[in-house]
């Protein structure tokens, strides 16, 4: 480990993800806004947050809550004005914090001017900004590719008799990155925000931008057989990203994270190793598919704990060896709450929330906290389909019934899997609508808000919120969080995830009981002998009142989780 390898500031940072629509409404229209975020910056600063990732606030018809951009350089009036945005940057910078914005350039909304031009005629100069194909030789869809939101990935345009590609909703048309004009226009747009003072970007599904130009049919030999193998980590993707780095990220010294859909470790090393000059770090989703039977999101099964641990371990070790860097996360706006998914969000809610935080924050990478996670917000209890807003959930509710499921069965799948689970309004206090809005919220507020809210969490010294604050501070104090070598230590234990991070004589030891049982756990001798001062050390953070010293055999109460800092012989 050389000193320079891990010297960048963002490796010791924690990012807070803001879903603006649900964060804080200052106008009473039921939708959160930029000024709402600015109002809450002191809260985030006290939590220890270094970077705020603000999700799309651009002009958009909002079919996919802003991931359908109609104008990349204007603010959607629902979220405020450009002046509000400038004020947000100023207020962040005044506090020594940074802003990361969302860049969505695999596709645009079909209401974007480029698409309007493109669809207007085959001869329009913008025609080639998107991916247009003739029907298959015998008629019908150009290929059997499926949209990630359900149904075919091709949409027919009557006027020209051609299809355009949409990997997500039919109103999200995929841009044609083979066209150098598109690449130049995207770089121009990113420079616009960089010059405004934006410090970094989160790049939406950026590993899907380069498609196999044959657009072949998927023969189904590799699951899920929906065509993704022809556009995921595609032929020219690294070339395109290197160009963005050269033109934008490098000159402005930006911090960047690429969202990588169905990616591989080998590609993520390339995307995030600094020598490659692409991104600072990557999100991958493999650990969040451990409850998808055969990779199918819309079927339920209990999650596979061993797979969760194996995936974390493989990515920790693999990225470390390859010089890559992980974005660490359990939650985001596309995932149900991890608290409800992997632990107990009821009887052991508080222990569980702290366990997930400790387990994740001890890993190598940059941790991301998704709004509400720091106060232990669970999935809400849904009562009926009319409460849902998410386009993917509404599509799937229909498709599941077309496949023969009853409305009740379809609803119970949405209860577990819908993206709306994480999108309900932020719970600030116990006043009406949890202090989110004085109007009618765009999506319902979870009924448990009188008990689960920021105000309550701030008042209790041993709250989930204070646990997060401590973890975020520890990462800055001890280099082992950034640099330590990962080693898994639980040997397939059915309830425990245990690992160390060692380096330069220090060892961080993390042990978490992912079950509602009281159990015992014993370190194998081969691990134990490496921990030289163990036996006396108390945890630097834990989630029970009686924190045990680090001993070879541990008794662990339900959802107990501890982190010790000791010395190592390695
Ligand atoms: O395929 C997946 C993981 O392998 C999906 O999780 C995929 O990465 C995800 O749906 C992409 O999400 C992003 O792009 C979407 C948008 O709806 C999401 O909110 C955004 O996070 C389309 O822009």
Shape: globular
Q: How much of the sequence is in beta strands?
A: 15-25%
Q: Overall pLDDT, averaged?
A: 96
Ligands bound, unique: 6-O-alpha-D-glucopyranosyl-D-fructose
Low-confidence stretches: none
CATH architecture tag of the domain at 12-104 and 332-382 and 418-477 = Alpha-Beta Barrel
Offer a quick outline of the entry.
This protein has 570 residues and is an alpha/beta fold.
Task: Explain how this protein is built.
This protein has 570 residues and is α/β, with parallel strands linked by helices. It has 16 helices and 22 strands. The protein has helices at 34-39, 41-47, 82-94, 113-120, 180-196, 237-249, 265-272, 305-322, 338-342, 349-361, 391-402, 407-417, 454-459, 464-477, 479-483, 525-528, and strands at residues 15-18, 51-54, 58-59, 71-75, 98-103, 107-109, 132-133, 154-157, 162-165, 172-174, 200-203, 255-259, 281-283, 327-328, 366-370, 485-488, 496-503, 506-513, 519-522, 541-542, 553-556, 561-567. It is globular, with a radius of gyration of 24 Å. The two termini are 13 Å apart. The site of 6-O-alpha-D-glucopyranosyl-D-fructose has 12 residues, from loops.
């Amino acid at each position: 480990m050389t000193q320079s390898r891990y010297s960048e500031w963002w490796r010791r940072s924690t990012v807070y993800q803001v879903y603006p629509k649900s964060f804080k409404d200052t106008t009473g229209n039921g939708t959160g806004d930029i000024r709402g975020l600015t109002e809450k910056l002191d809260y985030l600063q006290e939590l220890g947050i270094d970077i705020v990732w603000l999700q799309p606030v651009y002009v958009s018809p909002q079919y996919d809550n802003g991931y359908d951009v109609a104008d990349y350089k204007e603010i959607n009036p629902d979220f405020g004005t450009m002046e509000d945005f400038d004020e947000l940057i100023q207020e962040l910078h005044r506090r020594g914090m940074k802003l990361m914005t969302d860049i969505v350039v695999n596709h645009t909304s079909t209401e974007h001017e480029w698409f309007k031009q493109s669809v207007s005629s085959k001869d329009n100069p913008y025609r080639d900004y998107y991916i247009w194909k003739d029907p298959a030789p015998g008629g019908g869809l150009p290929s059997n590719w499926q949209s990630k939101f359900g149904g075919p990935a091709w949409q027919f345009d009557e006027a020209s008799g051609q299809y355009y590609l949409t990997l997500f909703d039919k109103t999200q048309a995929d841009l044609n990155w083979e066209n150098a004009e598109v690449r130049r226009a995207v770089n121009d747009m990113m420079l616009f925000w960089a010059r405004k003072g934006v410090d970094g970007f989160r790049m939406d599904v950026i590993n899907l931008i380069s498609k196999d130009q044959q657009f072949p049919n998927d023969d189904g030999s590799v699951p899920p057989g929906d065509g993704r193998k022809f556009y995921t980590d595609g032929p020219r993707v690294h070339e395109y990203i290197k160009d963005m780095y050269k033109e934008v990220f490098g000159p402005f010294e930006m911090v960047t994270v690429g969202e990588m859909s169905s990616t591989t470790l080998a590609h993520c090393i390339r995307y995030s190793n600094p020598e490659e000059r692409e991104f600072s770090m990557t999100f991958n989703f493999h650990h969040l598919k451990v409850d998808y039977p055969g990779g199918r999101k819309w079927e339920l099964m209990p999650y596979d704990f061993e797979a969760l641990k194996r995936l974390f371990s493989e990515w920790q070790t693999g990225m470390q060896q390859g010089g890559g860097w992980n974005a660490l996360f359990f939650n985001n706006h596309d995932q149900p709450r991890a608290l409800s998914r992997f632990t107990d969000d009821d009887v052991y809610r508080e222990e569980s929330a702290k366990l997930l935080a400790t387990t994740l924050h001890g890993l190598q990478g940059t941790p991301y906290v998704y709004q509400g996670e720091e106060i232990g917000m669970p999935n809400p209890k849904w009562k009926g389909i009319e409460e849902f807003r998410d386009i993917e959930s509404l599509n799937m509710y229909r498709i599941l019934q077309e496949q023969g499921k009853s409305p009740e069965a379809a609803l119970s799948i949405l209860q577990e899997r819908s993206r709306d689970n994480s999108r309900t309004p932020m719970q600030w206090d116990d006043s009406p609508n949890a202090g989110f809005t004085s109007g009618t919220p765009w999506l319902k507020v979870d009924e448990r808000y009188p008990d689960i809210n920021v105000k309550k969490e701030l008042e209790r010294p041993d709250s989930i919120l204070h646990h997060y604050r401590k973890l975020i501070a520890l990462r800055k104090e001890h280099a082992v969080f950034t640099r330590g070598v990962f080693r898994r230590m639980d040997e397939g234990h059915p309830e425990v995830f245990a690992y160390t991070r060692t380096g330069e004589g220090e060892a961080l030891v993390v042990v978490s009981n992912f079950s509602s049982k009281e159990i015992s756990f014993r370190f194998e001798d081969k691990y134990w002998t490496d921990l030289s001062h163990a036996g006396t050390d108390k945890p630097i953070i834990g989630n029970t009142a009686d924190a045990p010293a680090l001993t070879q055999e541990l008794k662990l109460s339900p959802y107990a989780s501890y982190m010790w800092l000791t010395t190592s012989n390695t």
